Amino acid sequence: xxxxHQKTSLDFIIWLTLVLFSVAVVLIxxxxxxxxxxxxxxxxxxxxxxxxGNAVVKLVESSxxxxxxxxCIADAANLYDMSVQVFNKQAYLVYPFSSxxxxxxxxxxxxxxxxxxxxxPTVNDRGxxxxxxxxxxxAFAQSVRILGEDMYLYIYSxxxxxxxxxxxxxxxxxxxxxxxxxxxxxxxxxxARQMGKPIRRLxxxxxxxxxxxxxxxxxxxxxxxxxxxxxxxxxxxxxxxxKADNMQKELIANVTHDFKTPLTMIKAYAAMIIEISxxxxxxxxxxxxxxxxxxxRLANLVNDILDISKIRSGISTxxxxxxxxxxxxxxxxxxxxxxxEQGYRIVTDVEDDLxxxxxxxxxxxxxxxxxxxxxxxxxxxxxxxxxVKAEGDMIHFTVTDTGKGISEEDLKxxxxxxxxxxxxxxxxxxxxxxxLSIVKTILVKHDFNYGVISEQGKGSxxxxxxxxxxx
Length: 471
Known about the structure:
CATH topology of the largest domain: Beta-Lactamase
CATH architecture of the largest domain: 2-Layer Sandwich
Distance between the termini: 71 Å
Strand order of the largest sheet: 2-1-6-5-4-3
Largest sheet: 6 strands, antiparallel
Radius of gyration: 51 Å
CATH class of the largest domain: Alpha Beta
Shape: rod-shaped
Structural class: alpha+beta
Order of helices and strands: HHEEHEEEEHHHEHEEHEEHHEE
Number of domains: 3
Mean pLDDT: 76
């Protein structure tokens, strides 16, 4: 049963269009041909009647007797295969003799002919008229003078052979149109099926994808460029959906894990306070501090997830204004000064007073996350280098560590949420695993160029290009 809002299928539309077009072409050609044939036939018959009439007029007007005039009319009738008659003004036939003095069967017609002859322009001082009869027949009439008496010549052509030929041609045209319609139906059906086949294939693949099966493929050797382009777009969309699905599953797994650990510890240390610590202030304070630290960790994790969600959904809009990148970077570096006690060294190579237009708070978050990431993954020398340099119309910001570097495979996923390197390291800077994902989200929102250059065993350099604001 067809749904009331269901649209007509593309196959049917293509099929109907081709059929209507074919039928219209056949009808136009056929009707035009019939009209041209009839017009040509009418012109030829009129010309023959005109010639025959002029010839008969000359013959009968040169006759010297009634018998000679009758003989001329009979010969002309046989020669031109026409009905040739002469009647007087009283509408009585005079020639041929076989019908002489007999009333013409249609006197009203003869009276109409006489009236037209009298009103038409004269030819050699005599009226002449060509007029049409039913069923594409024609007649010629002209005033004549035979043996000194004014009469009227009437020539009528049955043209049975020509009419039969036209009728046969029209019947043949009907059969041709019927055959053409049947052939058009078949050809249109085949063409419609062929044109709709790739669309049906893409539709079936889309339904499979909608069920969560990402093994489906859209690309193929399609006969139309537009379909190929659509297939490529759908294939790209499928790949992106597959990545998003994997990321969602990974996110759920990681969030569940990261939430579970601090919650378990909070519950365990709370129980310790109740059951073990008792009135021992030292044990109670130590357990309470663990609860506070794990609560902070949960709060940071929730805040990072919210930050990503707000920026990507558009809820958190950018507040762009003039920003001194040099000062912002040095400010963030100072915040990590406490790590000097642990042996970490941050080397800065920052050019003074380089300005750009950006959301200052979010750029601070980018610098903080990149610097914290570098500190966490730097090498045994515990050295991180921060650079801010003007290069052409850009400000090139870099953070370089001396760690083990990133593999070619990991470079493709390093910006994903909850990416974790396989290398072991100590984390002097607490994080949630969302740092680089937040960096990517903010920089994409700003439309800033960013990336990472890394070689295993030689460390990594993360960079961001800010548009340089010139004076």
